[in-house]
Amino acid sequence: PTTSATMQKYMRLLLALAAAVAAEPLYDFSSSALVELTDDNFETLVVGDATSLWVVEFYADWCGHCKQFAPGFAKAAGNLKGIVKFGAVNAEKASKTASLYGVNGYPTVKVLMPEVTRNPYTGKLGKVAKDYGGPRTARGVVDYATSLLPSELVAAVTDGGLESFLSEGALPKALLLGSKPAVSPLLKSLALALKGRLQLGYAHGEAAPETATALGVDGFPRLAVVPAGKGAAESISYTGEMKAEQLLAWLTSHAGPPLPPKDGGGGGGGGGGAASLVRDLSESDLSSLGAEPHVLAFGDVDGLEALAEATYGQVVVGRAPAALAAKYGGKEAPAVAMLPFGAAEKAAKKAVPFAADAAGLDAAK
């Protein structure tokens, strides 16, 4: 009896200790670059964010592998602060979100791409989520995340090409003259954050001395903004620190107005009415389209919503500035053009024109 009572006492103690360990939170979000994500805020913070790349870990507090991975994941978040957003989901508490993303083991890391779409049947916002299967280290996560930042949003500028860069489109321009040949993850993230509001370009300073002279630059890295419709002589130089937060604040102050929310102002919860599946594309957007097939309407074209719903997930349907109709094969607006699959096929000269009526849209489909 004594032995049995002692064993029961020890068992109760062990269970109490196990419960205490299990209850200890894996992350202290108050002192971390990580964002605590829940069923209540995931759609608003992550899915509704069209200007950021998100790296999200699904974990459980009791999971041994999660505990081993946690320091590296938190370090990766700190290393990419201001460049890539990092969040963590306690999958046992946020079971709805974990189930939605097919999480069945811990830790699971997914990278959610910036582009936001709305399912025409459920009315829900959605994003492409890529599974991370690399090393469970800070370096592994950082390398994978930065490899997914879109590079096509940053225009390559060389000597002889500055005037063309400044005159293309109606957006203000910002040009970074850097000390390295490759575009940095920071600049890619800034271009993503300001997509549709400011066109960013990059020049390797040592290989572009004429460009540097035109902007009054005598050292690298140097960043300059040129207001819309202005020339290099009217450039404004940045004099602050080359850090993400300061750079974004300065560039935002010189950018165009914020774009309207894709859900019509109703937020991530769908309370603002059904969102249009037809994307409004600026001239800058047209220079950085993805690989999907596109149907573009220039000017007033009826039937776009029906086409977008019928081809959801297969074709991107967008409205483009009427003034660009001729560039994409139409004589004048209204006009319709189809861009075939593949990034290399997105040149305007490859566009296939169609009539701007129901028959034309059906043929484009």
TrEMBL record:
Signal sequence region: 1-23
Stretches assigned to the Thioredoxin domain: 12-150
Any Pfam family: Thioredoxin
InterPro entries listed in its UniProt record: Thioredoxin-like_sf, Thioredoxin_CS, Thioredoxin_domain
Record-level GO cellular component terms: endoplasmic reticulum lumen
Region spans: Disordered: 254-274
Gene Ontology molecular function: protein-disulfide reductase activity
GO biological process assignments: response to endoplasmic reticulum stress
Record key words, sorted: Signal
Gly residues bias: start-end ranges: 263-274
PANTHER family documented for this protein: PROTEIN DISULFIDE-ISOMERASE A6
Name under which the protein is recorded: Thioredoxin domain-containing protein
Species of origin: Emiliania huxleyi
